[in-house]
Design a protein that fits this description.
10-stranded parallel β-sheet; homotrimer
Chain lengths: 358, 358, 358
Amino acid sequence: MLVRDIAEALGAKLDGDGDIAIDRLVHPAWAERPSDLAVAMSPQAAAALAQTKAHAVLVAAAAPPPPRSFSAVIAITEPRMALARLTALFDAGPPHDGGIHPTAVIAPDATLGPDVSIGAYTTIGARSRIGAGTRILPQVTIGADVTIGGQGLIHSGVRIGHNCRIGDRVIIHSNAVIGADGFSFAPDLMSATAFTAAVAVQRVHSLGNVVIGDDVEIGACSTIDRATLESTRIGRGSKIDDHVHIGHNVIIGESCILCGMVGISGSVVIGDRVRLGGGVGVGDHVRIGDQAVVAAGSGVGSDVAPGAFVSGYPAQPHARSVEQHLYLGRQKRLHDKVAAMASRLDELERVVGRTTKK
Amino acid sequence: MLVRDIAEALGAKLDGDGDIAIDRLVHPAWAERPSDLAVAMSPQAAAALAQTKAHAVLVAAAAPPPPRSFSAVIAITEPRMALARLTALFDAGPPHDGGIHPTAVIAPDATLGPDVSIGAYTTIGARSRIGAGTRILPQVTIGADVTIGGQGLIHSGVRIGHNCRIGDRVIIHSNAVIGADGFSFAPDLMSATAFTAAVAVQRVHSLGNVVIGDDVEIGACSTIDRATLESTRIGRGSKIDDHVHIGHNVIIGESCILCGMVGISGSVVIGDRVRLGGGVGVGDHVRIGDQAVVAAGSGVGSDVAPGAFVSGYPAQPHARSVEQHLYLGRQKRLHDKVAAMASRLDELERVVGRTTKK
Amino acid sequence: MLVRDIAEALGAKLDGDGDIAIDRLVHPAWAERPSDLAVAMSPQAAAALAQTKAHAVLVAAAAPPPPRSFSAVIAITEPRMALARLTALFDAGPPHDGGIHPTAVIAPDATLGPDVSIGAYTTIGARSRIGAGTRILPQVTIGADVTIGGQGLIHSGVRIGHNCRIGDRVIIHSNAVIGADGFSFAPDLMSATAFTAAVAVQRVHSLGNVVIGDDVEIGACSTIDRATLESTRIGRGSKIDDHVHIGHNVIIGESCILCGMVGISGSVVIGDRVRLGGGVGVGDHVRIGDQAVVAAGSGVGSDVAPGAFVSGYPAQPHARSVEQHLYLGRQKRLHDKVAAMASRLDELERVVGRTTKK
């Protein structure tokens, strides 16, 4: 790819030679050859420009000019957005051979679209359908009656249980599990006031499935459990980090962001564009409205209104959390002040000649 | 299965034609054919009965009568218990071919009971024994000298390390890991007051195993580490959700409930029928008594008495947590009140003609 | 191994017959044969010595003498360090056949050092290199251009993505994932004040890798994401427990201890010999200095100085957390005291004949 094409794809200003061919993005300190583009968006990386072996560099337009001249300089204005576009240009994905590996065990009645690739030792169950261009890496297990859309990428060790439905362009990272059984028992043990040796615990079986919309991404070692009778649903465009747990019957809207180690209990309903910080826990049957934000580490035990920003345990409006935390830091001072006031009261009572202490 | 048989299995009242054959449970809105039983236990689902295509419906006896007549109506009294029985009736489990897949790598001296089924690419180590009727799905790894009881279900990607012992009717969900090494070092680094560059960290190796009782269920991506010299033990009937971590040397009693993302440090001892909410953490060597309950998100740093209900971080009796939380919300008011009282003291002192402030 | 050799390896005192051959370490209650060494470091285990069938026993020198005589008694002074050395002596690792299993799929241009063993169904990608003596168990996936050092142990189900570099003597437990993509989007959604339906979420692709130093151990189901352009780095000798998540671009120093379920957000920088208790969360771009300690369950939202001991949410100096917690428990008493003082003020004002209340 030519420097000129990169600048154009980023909508960025180019100074110098647009004809340099680039085949790799690197930190300035790592550049080794003329085809490396040194990416210096941070002050630290920009400092390394002085010594870089790169001929072409990418810098932030708002930063001071590079410490020396280069054959080509691309200056970008919105660093993070530029980084998204730039990395997309150069992401060839995990190297793979393409085609269907001879060791893959594919049910005779499974249907594979054009240009599907399937890695070594992957198994695909009866009647499952894989859409055009989807890449499935080695050692994936896909159950019976599963549907996966086109242009997807399923990494090694992913398990997709029977009957689950996955949209187009979905990325699922290694060792994620879609469609394990829900964790549901009778009686409702967590709320039972009398769970004694006499109570026989009955398993509520999971007969439903998981339905995942288009353009969803699911992180490594994340789990999405199947519903009891219906579908656990993840809306279009939602992004889920590593180690996230989504319980049975949960419904998550579109374009949500669930950071690492978020845990969602059963039957939770989450709207669109909701953002949950790392490690957030949500109790069962809670409802979280559109565009709500929950700060990292919070525990949500009751409904959250659309657009609300909540934090803490239990989660409450963030301004309230901040206020409480402020006063928490002043407890000692308050105790001391009250003690001093008590002494003054003693003295006043002595002077006035009247004790009111009990 | 006939409607009559279902009603009888649930101990529920049946009105109408008991001879309708049912082959599927569905939400009322999803019913498509006469063999669908529309399950309407919630008010939302009951509302959908008006438009359902189902001929047979299941409703809560306590709810208002269905909005129109049906060929058959089953009315249940205890919804959650009925759901457990009902879903058990219809759970055929993950579809599988049965038998031993030709690609399974089974040690010549491993022993398989009658009716064991083993999926593609599963490996079973030397001298291991699998009990009658146990189903092992594709791509499971079972080490040497492992014992698994009868009628179990081991999902894809489960890893069971050497020497571990699993009881009868145990269900282990995908990508769970039984028998990884414990996380133990010398000196005891978390409590060491002087961990300097001079300290050489020594690994405490894990020579013990994991022993899991009958009727235990273990969730997807959960880990149970092997003991140092003895056994990490999970008692009969305990249920463990997804992403649960159980450290080395831990002993858990019978019929416990561990919700998602619970983390149990090394050498913890937990009694019978203990319930841990989602995300609970338990520090090492802590003891939790029979029938104790720990609220979701709590951190348990010291022993919990039998039957106690604790919450918070560090966990304390729940009533105390509630009280503290109540006062937390009143901090501003208290500060304001104290400030007003200080003014009154100033004024009183002025009137009395005596200053006691320091 | 002879009792004499064990005592010598531990630097421990031996009384009795040093020529007894030992082939197993057991709890005193489990001893069955003369070649069992009964290990009784805890008071509980020591109590079991009265009934043990072992002829040779290992006890703590500081404990009361054993309740009866034995053929050989090893008395150790530093129990935990002795346990590390003792278990290392007897750890043969998971039993395996050695050699390259015929079902392993190894790229023709991959390079295997001497004495490498590779289990069934493991796949190794193009140009990858495995160092001498490293054992790779069944069903591991190693991508293209991966380097793994010598004397390592990679357990079943581990996924190592393309381009990652692993040092010597590294142990990675089952189902851990090294080199999944980072969780990074544009705009920066968690900090965006206006994330509306109009915002198109762009994926920041992960073109970097993961670099893991010598002597690192990584727990089961842990994930270490690859960097955007450079390397996510784990320093030499650091130990990582199960279910730990390490985000993209993170740099962790040497000899750190990360307990179970720790979550590290993107671009965090952690020094040497840092200890993070179970369940600790660290926000993105935070820096934690050398030898800092973070108590279990804490949430770290801002930088931590070298050597600091912090706790709580948000994490603060531990002494401050303890103080705040102490006062938290006294809130009711303070309210009551303030209420009593208000009554005294009322009475004083009545006596003095002057009301100052508003």
